[in-house]
Design a protein that fits this description.
alpha+beta, 64 residues, flat
């Protein structure tokens, strides 16, 4: 089965390569950078939800 990668509508760059891509596969969430697609990070849906919740609450605003 081919992995269906998704990127945000907010992705930028002339060719859309300034973004992270996500996919769901075999019960895991996969993340990769569009300009370095061979490096894939695997996590669980629960861990991704916890991270996104923290990001929405501003926990990482000091990093960027």
């Amino acid at each position: 089965m081919e992995i269906q990668w998704r990127k945000s509508s907010k992705s930028s760059g002339a060719d859309g390569n300034n973004c992270l891509e996500l996919a769901a596969h075999d019960g895991e969430i996969l993340l990769r950078e569009s300009d370095n697609p061979d490096t894939v990070i695997r996590t669980t849906p629960a861990k991704l939800r916890a991270f996104l919740g923290g990001a929405k609450e501003g926990e990482f605003d000091d990093l960027g």
